[in-house]
User: Fold this.
Amino acid sequence: MKLKWNMLRALAALALCTSWQAHAADTCGLGNGKPATGTPIQLGAVVGKTGPEDFSSAARAAAAYFKCVNANGGINGQPIEYTVADDAWNPETAAQVASKLVKDKQVVAMVGSTSFVECGANTKLYEQEGVSVVAGTGVPRACFFAKNYAPFNQGPRLSVTSAAQYIAETFKLKSITCVAPGIPGFGDWVCGGVEAWGKAAGVAVKSVLFDPGALDGNAIALQIVGTQPDGVVLGMPRGMMLPILAAAEQQDLAKTYKWALGTPAYHVDMPKVLGKYWADRVYVHMELQPIDNDGPDTKNWKAIMVKYGDKKDPIDTFSQAGHLAARATTQALLSVKGPVDRKSASAAIKGIKNLRTDMLCGPWYFGNGDRHNANHTGRMAVITATGFKTITSCFDAKDAELADILKTEASGASVN
Amino acid sequence: MEQLLPFIAVGLGIGAVYALSGVGLVALYRASGVVNFAYGALGGLGAMVCWEIVDAGYAEWLGWLAAIVTATLLSFLYGRFIAPLLTHQDRIVRAVATLGFALMIMGLAQWYWGDAPRRLTLPTDTGGIEFNGRRVINYTRLLALGVALSMTVGMALLLTRTRLGLGMRALQSDRTLSSLLGIRIARVDAWAWAITGVFAGISGIFLGNMIKLNPAVLTFLVIPGLAAAIVGRLASLWATVAGGLVIGVIEALAALHPVSAKLGTSAAFIVAITVILWLQRGGIGLSRDNSHLQ
Assistant:
């Protein structure tokens, strides 16, 4: 009986992998073209939309995917009702909206969440209430150290450490300055990763943590000059990077230092916004695969965004992550036998293993671990006059904090 | 000293724009007695309009012109049609009304342009003066310094050599008496609002370029301008210029140490409070016109 069950699981996993590789057009869910009409299945997300920066890209991509699913048979006939709540970058608001979704709306799972504050405020609630979160993008440390919260991205710490690794190894740099907003559980954690890597690699790393509420690009650029580095890495949202890069341009700092940016800079508009000065002078880490790759899953993501998304929806790494989160959740819910409730949904989501797609460098999994950071392999691109040029193959972030994750993966628990 | 040079140069550049903002605020206050909290929002809106025009592919000079015209026109319209309705209100009420105006402009701009990252570049950004192979100051900051000083000279000449300036100075001394002497108060006021709009438009372009092109950020950049104006006791143009430059340099020098760096943005408050306390030492008020305090 046990053997039969294992065989069935293996076949299901194979079917899942095959179906993930097969999408080239706007295909999703059951793909039968019939609108779902049954009792809606409640899903939710908490995003930081209003505030210093709009972090709703992943949830927008997830919403587009769920629209596609609802137009194609839903979850075995049941449509998905997807509610996205804005935490306005406020932990109290994050707790309130999450409580509303979990306790009042009775969501069966959370999908595509992306926030600076919600992980610290809500991961305990999700664990207590048995809600699994397939996050779009995790931002602070708390998003990667929770039992029920699994993001599709690598996280800013790994992204910025990878960026530092790349410029240090490629240009033989001896010192690097890491710049990040001094938000507790974010800036210190992000630059702490670069510092730990630098210590092991023999690269002197200094950190500049600034007050995000009083962002002054000139002062930060001057602080960078004060640390006298060979290279600079920025770990922060795109909107915070720009004033610093503009001030650095005005002081002609690209001539003196090598610059690398975390994943938020990987956005189609960024090369145009930065302008000619930065062309071929600034490197960007990609937590997921390039948005212009030819893979069928990437093409499917774009096709769905065109057909079911809004024209204003960003096409960036966060959107890729939100799409993947929605798709993984849909596949998991479709595999539920019987009613889809919180318990069955959570079991199916936690059962996601060895998920392979051309949008990621390595396999993704949820599993039953105490924390989740399945994605830790990415690539580098350089900003050119017209866009991005991918310049490396996939490489692993060298972060000692990943030891427990790598141990789990080495045991084979993430793929079998 | 060589290490301090880039910090001082950067500080002078941004300080020049604070000075320009301060002079624009003082010009209006001297004529109409209104502290214009909408100054930053007007400049911010101008900068966003400039970006929109340049992004649509039009010539940059057209964008700069549009920024100044937008800020001037809105400021003039407020001064011509809204401000006269509040003439007999307390000065605090008139100042708070401009705050409402600022929030309206900021809200509309945020709604229309959102938070998407944008940059307002100027042709002068890419060149500058180098020292020991490192750029100490770029031409945009030098231009800001030149524009701030020239516009202050222009404002001083307007106040002392023209009939409009005479009217503005008369209103500063006594509005009722000026009215009895035949000075057309509404007209002089409207001109003062238009002039402050020109200053706001130009400041907005520079601040959008040097700090961040975002309506909310630019709206609140009225604060260092106000601090500079307070250094000038809301009366002296040249003391205002000095105040703006000092605030800019202190802000930049604060970046030298991680602890002081966290206080850099408080430089405007620190300078303003220090000056107020120093001026109060002998019981002297903010300006000669203390009627609002009575």
